[in-house]
Amino acid sequence: MSHENLKDELRALICEIAEIDALPDDTHFKDLGIDSMMGVEIVAAIERQYHVKIEDSELKEVSTLNKSYDLVLGKLAPSVAQSAE
Fold first, then answer.
1. Which residues of 29-39 are buried (b: 16+ CB within 10 A; e: fewer)?
2. pLDDT of 54 over the 70 cut
3. pLDDT computed for residue 84 by the predictor
4. Is the model's pLDDT at 72 over the cut of 70?
5. CB 75 within 8 A of CB 6
6. What class does CATH assign to 3-84?
7. 65: number of CA atoms within 13 Å, CB side?
8. Is the pLDDT at 14 greater than 70, yes or no?
9. What pTM did the predictor assign?
């Protein structure tokens, strides 16, 4: 999986849960009407989709697409690097 594919997949996942059509990279989720309950749903979906664990202390990082991407990429870094080779 490439880095761009990961970002596109995250964008699609978050748009689906939040029922929005567009998700700019740096727009804060709360500015898009994504509340804390949707945030929990987004985190759960990310954990299921990518088989990662997002700790409670990391929840604040799931606030924009770019921050979510950076968090997931950091957790997937070894496997993403291997698949890019």
1. beebebeeebb
2. yes
3. 47
4. yes
5. no
6. mainly alpha
7. 19
8. yes
9. 0.84
